[in-house]
Amino acid sequence: MLNRQSQDLHAKSRRARVAEHRRGSRLIGAGVIAGSVGGLAMIPFGVMLRRGGYPVNVYGQLLLEVLLGRAPVWALVVEHFLISWTLAVPLAALPTPLFHRSWPISLLVGFGYGALIWALVNSLVLPAIFGHSTPW
User: Fold this and answer.
1) Is residue 124 pLDDT above 80, yes or no?
2) Average pLDDT of the segment spanning 111-125
């Protein structure tokens, strides 16, 4: 009887680990999708801002120069998407009812999250890391 209970507990534990792994895999997959969409959506805005004379991707270039000694275009692209994917995982972890209502709601949630993260990272976190003053 004890052996049977032990086997049942082991099977339940294994099922729980498999379920947790699947949830984590789905979360990472959703983060990659959301980050790819967000990363691609940011490119036209960056191009427009750069053409308008505004500094774009200053901290991305600084980070690569610190890490690689220079900032080649391929490294900027890789960095852009790695950061987009990483920052999209918390968005993917939001409760699913926010995303299953309609496309406009999903886009609004994604746009709002992206704008908030962009503002926090670029106006507070990165200036503090690089010793620059913040715009606030």
Assistant:
1) yes
2) 87
Q: How far apart are CA 61 and CA 29, in angstroms?
A: 27
Contact 32, 85 (CB under 8 A): yes
> Hey, how many other C-beta atoms are within 10 angstroms of the C-beta on 110?
19
pLDDT value at 74 more than 90 = yes
Q: How far is CA 86 from CA 3, 4, 51, 68, in A?
A: 44, 43, 28, 21
pLDDT at residue 70 in the model: 94
Cβ-based neighbours of 61, under 8 Å, separated by 6 or more: 71, 76
> What is the torsion angle, in degrees rounded to the nearest 10, for the CA atoms of residue 77, residue 42, residue 27 and residue 82?
20
Q: How far is CA 93 from the centre of its chain?
A: 11
Query: Which residues are within 8 A (CB) of 27 and not within 5 positions of it... i.e. 6 or more apart?
Result: 89, 92, 93
Question: What Cα–Cα distance (Å) separates residue 9 from each residue in 17, 20, 48, 107?
Answer: 12, 16, 59, 43
